[in-house]
């Protein structure tokens, strides 16, 4: 019952909810509601209470403040510097500015809400307040340009692995870098870099993870989902971020030294849509074929209708 009450407050974050509404919705007495709220306070939930209006959630243990994120974070460089905003246009934009100003490798920009979240290919990214993880981090890699192109694929493997471990579900990767569960997108990755062919000045890895949404706007309903919607867990964002940072940092040293090779098998194991016929849209052309696998460079291998194999470097898959 307490989980259900938590859920009501999290879903109506920043609005007042009356004890009466909760008692009706859950079919329990007002006294029982009050007792649960007192217990939630002991767990670290903070409420504003106003007579006749009810309770408003001010702070819950899932708040992603800088202090909370840093507490017990055991990484050496990823997340050592954290810049937190309760609201910002785009963490990606802020990360670019900070990177130009010389902030260290591993600096993280994170927010509770984005008003102009950026997606791949000029799309927007829906980033509702308190319902997901919206963050960008800065890397100053020592490797060359071609390896930098594979970092998005590497990041997808690390993220899918982290999600699988935490929520024991089949999180898959839609090439090149969307995380899918039950046929819908739960997370997207946007990698941008600044530099020249032979020297990368910095890279920004932007990650959006839908954690708590239970509804989506009409245009996203059919294609997007959240961890909560698919798994029933109410994810703890801090726990998820810290696990991801730890995994990413550990695997990154291997990626730096050995490239994508040690990770491409894991990627293939998680590849979404294997054996399915797709259309692949590129800037100037469209290819049709069946998804076979990716190769150790991260290129997508399709089998075209005449049986020939096509190797694809970039594009957007449509089923
Ligand atoms: C995609 O199109 O799938 C990539 C989405 C990337 C969204 C994240 S949310 C945090 C960061 N800031 C942004 O403005 N975009 C990325």
UniProtKB/TrEMBL annotation:
GO cellular component, one term: cytoplasm
SUPFAM superfamilies for this protein: C-terminal domain of transcriptional repressors, Class II aaRS and biotin synthetases, Winged helix' DNA-binding domain
Domain BPL/LPL catalytic: 67-256
Catalytically driven reaction(s): biotin + L-lysyl-[protein] + ATP = N(6)-biotinyl-L-lysyl-[protein] + AMP + diphosphate + H(+)
EC top class, as a word: ligase
Keyword tags: ATP-binding, Biotin, DNA-binding, Ligase, Nucleotide-binding, Repressor, Transcription, Transcription regulation
GO molecular function ontology, one term from the record: ATP binding
Annotated residues for binding of biotin: 114, 185
Cross-referenced InterPro entries: aa-tRNA-synth_II/BPL/LPL, ArsR-like_HTH, Bifunct_BirA, Biotin_CoA_COase_ligase, BPL_C, BPL_LPL_catalytic, HTH_11, Transcriptional_repressor_C
Function noted in UniProt: Acts both as a biotin--[acetyl-CoA-carboxylase] ligase and a repressor.
Official protein name in the record: Bifunctional ligase/repressor BirA
Origin organism lineage: Bacteria, Bacillati, Bacillota, Bacilli, Bacillales
